[in-house]
Amino acid sequence: MRAMAKAPVLTPQAEDFPRWYQDLINKAELADNGPVRGTMVIRPYGYGLWERMQQEMDVRIKDAGAQNAYFPLFIPQSYLTREAQHVEGFAPELAVVTHGGGKELEEPVVVRPTSETIVNEYFSKWVQSYRDLPLLINQWANVVRWEMRPRVFLRTSEFLWQEGHTAHATYEDARDYAARIHRDVYADFMINVLGIDVVLGRKTAKERFAGAINTLTLEGMMGDGKALQMGTSHELGTNFAKAFNTQYLSRDGKQELVWQTSWGVSTRMVGGLIMSHGDDNGLRVPPRLAAVQIVVMAIKGDEAVTKVRELGDRLKAAGLRVQVDDRVDTPFGRRAVDWELKGVPVRIEIGPRDLEAGTAMLARRIPGGKEPVSVEQLAELLPAVLEEDQALLLRQSRERRASRTSDVTSLAEAAEAANAGGWARIPWSELGPEGEAELAQQAVSVRCLVAEDGSVPDSDDAPGTVAIVARSY
Amino acid sequence: MRAMAKAPVLTPQAEDFPRWYQDLINKAELADNGPVRGTMVIRPYGYGLWERMQQEMDVRIKDAGAQNAYFPLFIPQSYLTREAQHVEGFAPELAVVTHGGGKELEEPVVVRPTSETIVNEYFSKWVQSYRDLPLLINQWANVVRWEMRPRVFLRTSEFLWQEGHTAHATYEDARDYAARIHRDVYADFMINVLGIDVVLGRKTAKERFAGAINTLTLEGMMGDGKALQMGTSHELGTNFAKAFNTQYLSRDGKQELVWQTSWGVSTRMVGGLIMSHGDDNGLRVPPRLAAVQIVVMAIKGDEAVTKVRELGDRLKAAGLRVQVDDRVDTPFGRRAVDWELKGVPVRIEIGPRDLEAGTAMLARRIPGGKEPVSVEQLAELLPAVLEEDQALLLRQSRERRASRTSDVTSLAEAAEAANAGGWARIPWSELGPEGEAELAQQAVSVRCLVAEDGSVPDSDDAPGTVAIVARSY
Question: Which family is annotated (chains A, B) (predicted)?
């Protein structure tokens, strides 16, 4: 009766990881490819994951003092060219609007690939004196970067993200704020909500954001041992302030350039979630993120339907995020497989036999397995079950990274480890920018630099700095 | 000391309503014009209004059973042309991307002006049988319609909105759902949260959405007596289903076209809010909408600062949305004027004298006026004050509409009433499509058709149908 034992619905991870990923996205109805190359349609269940990410992130962003705003999608092409490195970095990826309202435009406009330029145009108007600083702005928006090798959620021509933009009176204040976002917003969310044991580090000069003086990154290890850049927080120095003349009157009555940061995470995190926690049966959604933490399923029969509705209400009243599945006209096995695919942490299954016994079957997606429980005890039992499963996902993520990371001392060993599907730690003094360039020819990159004690180094050449080297998405 | 009696900060409404609107948007820091013609930058306080609108709407949309999703910004130009009326309506307003990733595109893509076409492309894949219906989808997104005569929030080349798209098995089910959104989502939100006494009606054939068989609308009367279309809900019939071949297998085993609806409200509502409730001192935000319902202001002195922080915490704990203004270095008068401009419903002002007496000054933005109150009683007093003010805004909106609407029987009288800054009600049988065309030459339009009893008529030619005629934004 249970369909679990049948032929796998997904290509097994071990057989073909990229195909497993694509299968999962299709079968769990997370997203479809859009009609224009590289775009995607995010289906309700996939969008629900992003919506919950937004909610959790938005609270943390506001706690860090930033306010939401909205800047236009269209940026005059001339803005992009004002910061030399910035335009060099983004020019190859731009989508350009040449016609509007039936006419050719006098100046073509680009669809924002990121908003530093247009934001600075306005910051330069809004910032007058030191009293206006720090200015802390965030926006939730879509951006477009033309993609040659698109992959749903991971690299798409259009994606959804938040981008923070701030201006500060001093270098130190900007540096501290970029670090605060990196740690208190991004790392806190990724570790404690997504359950992904990200590494916090610093990008090398080669991997830095176009226009930044420093880029902080969070790197996650995926199920196949590759790395995914999950988010970045940049110190922009005064580069954009110079290009847009963003100055303030200091306490001493002098005109000074502002120091800036920008930072973003995107729908790419949905891809990271899938590749971190997914298994051959589908997705596994961390309970703290899940929009549906518990599905209460009627196996068959009117009495079971009545019971699951009643139980659903009771569990909702206890503060749990619950969906009732009373579609008894659809075979139970098919529905169970679907909830497994979608990765809902807990299923409560109730059939005619359970009704007599006052029990239900508790199926746990994250550790796997099922056991009968007393229906009466569920409301009390479930919060602990969910927290246990949340912790398990993080532990598994940590154990994977520990077991698949090796300390090496030579470039050859680093490349070998990366190509075998793992991460290598190598002293940055051994590798350096030349070694980095050599690794790049084998599609291996320095994901980030970390200090010996695991903290984020203050500069690229701090003694004892270690490079983390891997293949990446 | 109080700046209220000084020269007005805004152009008075009676002097020049459009200039008052623009002054308010600038001085209350709601938005700026964007660099590309017709675009806008929504500043944090303005975005906060939209964010609260989103929250309130999103709950109602989900209660109506729709799920959020996301469709791509870019639509192949060929999609638009599949529904003849639709392309005719939107072609003049399109922004077209011709280059991407440094190359000219094989097929130009348009930036979505609305998403019926791309949504139907996917609905036709997702809908197989009657079991998949109704399919109820909503998205929060930006859209672009090139504007020749832009005005911030009201008519912008890019705006933010939600657009709902649904597919149903029968005409009746689609019709009922469009009406449900119109009534339970839009009207409920606009009347009970925005405090705007909108009229619910039906658009004439001339004013219908391009591709719809029926458009339901909500029309609000602004402070100058003009009308603003605040939102619309469309019955699309099978027009898009035919164009995209969106069919389902019925219970009888036949392939049938789906019946569809689409519905949207946008950042235009922010403009409607301003023009409905604003006065010569600035905005007045309805308490149920306000992100900041109460500002607790220290007039001067360290003791007052301590007191307002403490009081702010106490009021927040009582479930009120509170901001503390302890910027005693900035003149009190300037801050008070600013909060008036921003329309925060209630100010609690505390100075040295109040501390001794255990009192505070309670200033109410909506009815105007201030009076001393006991600090101890505030937490108990304020919820009732806020609800009273919420009700007052709706009453004022209702009274304005009643006093500035006249029943007329001839086209000449209707035009005269509209041009004098009011609405006219005229039997549709008197006016008809020819009269409507004649009025259009004087920039007067039929805002909607209503039944004699105020309900929404089932067709254009139901006996007793009344046309509401006005100038509009």
Answer: Belongs to the class-II aminoacyl-tRNA synthetase family. ProS type 3 subfamily.
Of A71, A96, A111, the CB nearest to B41: A71
Look at A72 and B36 and tell me if their CB atoms are within 8 Å: yes
Torsions phi, psi of B12, nearest 5?
-60, 145
Between β-strands A322-325 and A294-298, what pairing exists: parallel, antiparallel or unpaired? parallel
Q: Name, in order, each residue with C-beta under 8 angstroms of A216's C-beta and a sequence gap of 6 or more.
A: A178, A179, A182, A200, A201, A202, A203, A232, A233, A234, A456
- What CA–CA distance (Å, rounded) separates B335 from B1? 12
State yes or no: pLDDT of B1 exceeds 70: no
Residue of B nearest to A55 (CA): B55
A48: chain B residues, CB-CB within 8 Å: 67-68
Nearest CA among B430, B463, B424 for reference residue B446: B424
This model of the complex carries an ipTM of 0.96
Cβ–Cβ contact B123 with A under 8 A: no
Can you tell me the mean pLDDT for A349-363?
A: 92
pLDDT at A2: 46
Instruction: Tell me: pLDDT of A53 over 70.
Output: yes
Average pLDDT over residues B346-351: 96
Q: What is the pLDDT of residue A5?
A: 52
Spatial separation of the C-alpha atoms in residues B57 and B55, rounded to whole Å: 6
pTM greater than 0.90: yes
How far A129 CA lies from chain B's nearest CA (Å)?
13
Which residue bears the tokens 């670090």? A179
Mean pLDDT along residues A195-212: 96
Residues of B in contact with A100 (CB under 8 A): 94-96, 146, 157
The CATH architecture one would assign to domain B17-277 is 2-Layer Sandwich (3.30)
- Name beta bridge partners: A137: A67, A165
User: What pLDDT score does A412 carry?
Assistant: 97
Cα distance between residue A237 and residue A214, in whole Å: 8
Nearest residue of chain B to residue A106 (CA atoms): B36
pLDDT digits (tens, 9 = 90+) for A268-283: 999 999 999 999 999 9
In sequence order, what E strands does A189-254 have?
199-202, 214-221, 227-237, 247-249
Kindly state the percentage of chain A with pLDDT values over 70.
99
Residues B324-336: what's their mean pLDDT?
Answer: 96
Assess B69–A contact: CB distance below 8 Å, yes or no. yes
CB-CB neighbors (< 8 A) of B136 in chain A: none
Within an 8 Å CB–CB cutoff, is residue B249 touching chain A? no
Beta carbons of A102 and B109 less than 8 Å apart = no
Q: Does A47 touch chain B (CB under 8 A)?
A: yes
Q: In this predicted structure, what is the pLDDT of residue A1?
A: 42
β-pairing, A67-68 vs A135-144, is parallel
Domain boundaries, chain A: 17-277, 294-386, 405-470
Determine contact: A245 vs chain B, CB below 8 A.
Answer: no
**Which one of A41, A103, A338 makes the best mutation probe of the B interface by having the most chain B beta carbons within 10 Å?**
A41
Architecture of domain B405-470: 2-Layer Sandwich (3.30)
Percentage helix, strand, coil for chain B under 3-state DSSP, each rounded to 5: 40, 30, 30
CATH number for domain B294-386, candidates 2.40.50.1020, 3.40.50.800, 3.60.130.10, 3.40.309.10: 3.40.50.800
Q: What's the angle, vertex CA A297, arms to CA A294 and CA A300, rounded to 5?
A: 175
CB nearest B111 (choices: A43, A47, A97): A97
CB-based contact, B35 to chain A, within 8 Å: yes
